[in-house]
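Appendix C reproduces, verbatim, an entry submitted by the partner laboratory led by Prof. M.T., so that reviewers can inspect both the input and the predicted structure.
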Amino acid sequence: MFSIVESFYTALAALWANKLRSLLTMLGIIIGVGAVITMIGLGEGAQRSVQERLEAMGSNLLTVNPGAARGGGHAVRTGGTARLYVSDADAILEGAQFVEAVIPEMSRNLQVQYLNRNWNANIVGTTPLYDMVRNHPPVDGRFFTDSENRAAAKVAVLGSAIATELYGRGSAVGETIRIAGQRFQVIGVLEEKGTGGWRNPDEQVFIPLMTAQRRLLGRDHLSNIIIQVSDQESMEIATIDVERVLRREHRLRPDQDNDFRIRNQADLISTFQDTQRTFSFLLAGIAGVSLIVGGIGIMNIMIVSVTERTREIGIRKAVGARRRDVLMQFLLEAIMLSIIGGLIGIGAGIFASDLLARFAGWNTVILIEAVILSFAFAASIGIFFGMYPAQKAAKQNVIDSLRYE
């Protein structure tokens, strides 16, 4: 009578006797488990990174953009004249509840030049409240003042990426740049933020709003309005109130659609999280196909092994091994191939994630849930694909097996 312990040692000896074949058989499992862990780690890392950046820019912010919201897959027509003005921002600050600050902004992509270095940057005309509301303070120099804004002063605050591109590691404060051919004095450099929302603030240049209107862009309508709400719980009420104020300012009749769009930063964070999570599972699912392929490889090799060891099976049965003992032995071999391959795959996945984080600069987060799930799936693959070869071995006839050459 064969015990499970004896079957285990017998299975281990059989795998060790064919080390190279066993390693090649496990390769699909190793790649599958490693790929699943790496893909989920990359997805989770990207999700947390962007979430932190978006939250750092403020989760209690509303952004108002000109133009109608989309409905039914088509933009609602408003005559093509929908615009936002500084008067709209003033009306929101005065008439909407739970609003702490309002920042009117206008922007355009223009050429920024310093000596022989150029950068096509997004120029943002804004107010002195930007660094406070957006939680984006200067790390060198200062932000412009209200008096500089009223005087339409030619001063600029650089995003960190532009400052590095134009000035390298040296200080940009006090230097002069040209924006669309006009000279501006650099008075500050903002801390590094990274991608957040629709644009990367590190690649933007900030100038006073009045300067943008009167000296650079030559227009009075805004690109958007940023609204800081007093707290997260008041976002919904504030959104309704801002909509009411803007509809009144734009003289819209009750039967007319809004000619503006209000976007909630918290909703943007939630939407991005859901999207990123979906992509993470999609990538993990694609990587999981390797596990299925690995399981088919295990079944194929085990069938070959059963054929090669037919005479051995006959001898074991002749000396007293029962059908379930033979089944257990071959099933254990398949399970051990999956488990060992899974363990190696876990190590490979963690190692690959570390390499990507260290050398490619990608954020990776190893989730214990992903490790457990991929390992359990690998073990299940061994049981599922190992059952048929094991049953085939167990059903071998003793006489036929002993006569097999």
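The chain has two domains: 4-53+270-402, 83-249. Additional entries are available on request from the coordinating office.
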